[in-house]
Amino acid sequence: MRVVFMGTPDFAVPTLRALAEHGHDIMCVFTQPDRAAGRGRKLSPPPVKVAATELGLRVEQPPKVSVPEVVDAIRQMCPDVAVVAAFGQKISPKLLAVPVHGFVNVHPSLLPRYRGAAPIERCIMNGDEVTGVTIMYMDEGWDTGDIGLVRKVDVPRGADAGQMRQCLAEHGAELMCEFLRLIELGRAPRIAQDHSQATYAPKITEADQTVDFREPAAVIERHVKGLSPDPCVVASIAGVRFKILNAQAVDDWSADTGDMATPTVAPGMLWPTRRLGLVVGCGVDGRDGLVLTEVQPAGGKRMGGAEFARGRRISPGQSLDSPYPLDSGRGGA
Description:
Strands 5-2-1-6-7-8-9 form a 7-stranded mixed beta sheet, covered by helices on one side. The chain is of the alpha/beta class. The protein contains 8 helices and 15 strands. The termini are far apart. It folds into 2 domains: about 1-195, 3-Layer(aba) Sandwich (Rossmann fold), CATH 3.40.50; about 205-320, Methionyl-tRNA Fmet Formyltransferase, Chain A, domain 2. The protein is about 25% helix and about 25% strand. It has helices at about 15-20, 45-55, 70-75, 95, 120-125, 160-185, 215-225, 305-310, and strands spanning about 1-5, 25-30, 35, 40-45, 60, 80-85, 105, 130-135, 145-155, 235, 240-250, 270, 280, 290-295, 320.
């Protein structure tokens, strides 16, 4: 099929590569403009641009894909279908009408659940055991179009957002190629979403990067994994910020604190332990334990929690800086 592809981050790359491997005629790849990244703020190409260049494909990076000149250029390509995967731009009604079979999108959730920008993160943060990918016909709304194909995928215990993103990207690539095959055969299904069942996954904000350690450790663990490896939960101690890249809730940890078998604990207190490493007290009484298995100080390297505790000379019972006063009413089991 004659395909126009639109995508930007790593999530979109497997679909692009799968389309090329299946012999589709990829007329052009549209992706977001290069962005400044890293400490030097040098312009960096999006992953889709890198992959498309490796595949020898034409690449365009208009700031807005729905402007008349871009719509006209795509119309002249006479595409059979436009495939979208995490593109990051709104598609206008005029552009949606250009391809013979319209625009079809890879969405990493079981629509209508988790419409929006952060379905993978919200799925893990909410503790879902099953998620999936949906191939959706795009319309003028955000993730409101008819459903083509769906595949359920289990969420492994302990998986973080990065791992699930890669997993769902691979499943999405396979499902998209199957869907295009069905379009060619004239057998592609099309089922309207039940809008009454819709839930939403809003974009991750800076506020999401802060957790209240009065919450249960299991809840905070899911939050950490939902934001890992980027942008990560952020905490601070004595004014020094650090990212929490991985963490694990534990039940019985107080006996691992050495001579203090029954320490006086509170939410946000840190305890360097012999067996588990660095534990932070969680829950309303601080006796719920969360092992900080991997952290990254601001401007520093990734390291284990125990190494971080030694480097910062964290003493037993030292508290994290808390953005929530104890009488704020937030948190609690």
